Amino acid sequence: MYVSLELIGTLTAIVLAAGVVFGGLWTLLAHYQRRIDDRFAEMKTDFRAFEAGANSRFAETKTDFRALDAGVNSRFAEMKTDFRAFEARINDRFSELQGDIASITTDLRTLSGELTEVKLAVARLECPAPRLLRAP
Question: What is the 3-state secondary structure (H, E, C) of 63-127?
Fold first, then answer.
């Protein structure tokens, strides 16, 4: 079998061209792979910064919530104390009113008894009552 130099040259040119194309593609792929790796590293750094910021903000929020919770609990305790003082004042006032009502009831019973005595005295009088009550 006879192989011509022209065929060998053509095959060599094709192999060399394929090598150049393959080498160029390999170089291009390596270039883009480095860019992808660099971008991925940047994204990891950005995510870690974001995560640190989020964790910091979460810690601040927890601290703020605990302070708010403590403030609410403190205010609630103050309101309970205020309510108990108010309740004590109402109970004192109610006790005073009960005493006043008892005093009024006693006074009314006394007046009722005195009125009964007056009625009996008027009935015992020898002279008729209407003349005594008239104006002169």
Answer: HHHHHHHHHHHHHHHHHHHHHHHHHHHHHHHHHHHHHHHHHHHHHHHHHHHHHHHHHHHHHHCCC
